Amino acid sequence: MLKARPNPNMSPFLCGKILMSNAFWRGFGACWNARDANGELIERIPLPTECCTIRKDRENGTYWYDYNVDGVQKTFSSYELSFLFFESYDGIHGRGMLQLAREVIAADGMAQRYNKKFYQNGARISGIVEVDTDAKPETRDKIKEEFKGFASADAFKVAVLDHTMKYNPIGLNQSDAQYIESRGFSVEEVSRFTGIPKYMLQTGKESYDSNSQQRVDYVTDTLVPFVTAWEQENTYKLLTPAQRKNGWYLRGNVSVLLRGDDAARASFYQKMVFTGLYNPDECRALEERNPIPGGLGQKFLATKNLASLESILKGEDNNA
Q: How far apart are CA 31 and CA 233, in angstroms?
């Protein structure tokens, strides 16, 4: 179920993506670990967070999770569900991206509305028409209405002025120019709340080397905490007590996200084999290749230039 099919309708990747999407937007994602009468795990089903109501039993303090999906209601205990939180202050209720960034998103929404008025309706005066005589109010209104026509329906057409009129356009001031630049502010806030580097949000001007380092930081600082939480949650709720007692545990392989190019991987494997930390078959397993036939790849190797003090003293004794 973790590698092939958690349930008949989805792959493990899709199941995990649904859980992470619920956690990201709504604070937590929950997966129902369905078991048969013998307690054996038979399938895993992600549940919609928006359909969940959390209630606490006043007698014993137990939390229950009521789900109402398409008119069908089912209640789960916390042990029946695996949880993944985006953020939580009590371990029960989650806080999602929208909650954490509500003020920023609201401010960005106001900026968008201002932006719409700025370009469509003219949120500021675009110019001044000077007249060499004292114009009556009705004359001023008439001139203004004529210029409003040029600014909308007759945009980009030529305006003809009387010889006593002079038009002075007003350009963007410094604050308006800064507003246009501030449209990238919301992207920076999303990056700050989520830990996703700006270059992965199609913004920023970092170099290739900087982006490579940011990707490493993204995996270690942003993804690993979620992977660790998922490892610990599923180790407790998917494995039986006997399996945990025997030392079983679940672990996510984040090294696949940090794999470099062929030269970098070859250098890493070479160092690990030469120092005796990995054997060749273990390196081949990381590359998803079969072991060397005959068990030849299961031997640990070490360079002759590096030896223990005991072996060096033994060699001196033998030479004597």
A: 11
d(CA 99, CA 268): 42
The rounded Cα 7 to chain-centroid distance in angstroms is 25
Q: Which residues pair with 65 in a beta bridge?
A: 54, 76
Say which residue the tokens 């007698």 belong to: 59
**For the CA atoms of the chain, what is the radius of gyration?**
33
Spatial neighbors of 20 by CB under 8 A, at least 6 apart, are: 29, 84, 226
For the chain, helix, strand, coil in percent to 5 are 50, 15, 35
* CB atoms inside a 10 Å sphere around CB 279: 19
Burial label for 45, CB within 10 Å (0-12, 13-18, 19+), is middle
Which residue type occupies 275? Answer: T
Task: Indicate the DSSP class of residue 256.
Answer: G
Q: Please give the pLDDT value at position 320.
A: 43
- Which residue type is seen at 63? Y
In the predicted structure, residue 237 carries a pLDDT above the cut 80? yes
Give yes or no for a contact between 222 and 194, defined as CB atoms under 8 angstroms apart. Answer: yes
Cβ atoms of residues 60 and 3 within 8 Å: no
Closest CA relative to residue 260, chosen from 224, 286, 290 = 286
**In angstroms, rounded to a whole number, what is the distance separating the alpha carbons of residues 320 and 317?**
5
Q: Which long-range contacts (CB under 8 A, 24 or more apart) does 110-116 make?
A: 111/179, 111/182, 111/183, 111/186, 114/179, 115/183
User: Confidence class of residue 123 from pLDDT cuts 50, 70 and 90?
Assistant: very low
Residue 83, number of CB atoms within 10 A of its CB: 20
Tokens of 147: 């210029």
Percent of the chain with pLDDT over 90: 32
Whose CA is closest to 84, among 18, 40, 34? 18
Mutual angle of helices 185-194 and 102-116, in 10-degree steps: 160
Average pLDDT, the chain: 79
**SS3 state of residue 210:** helix
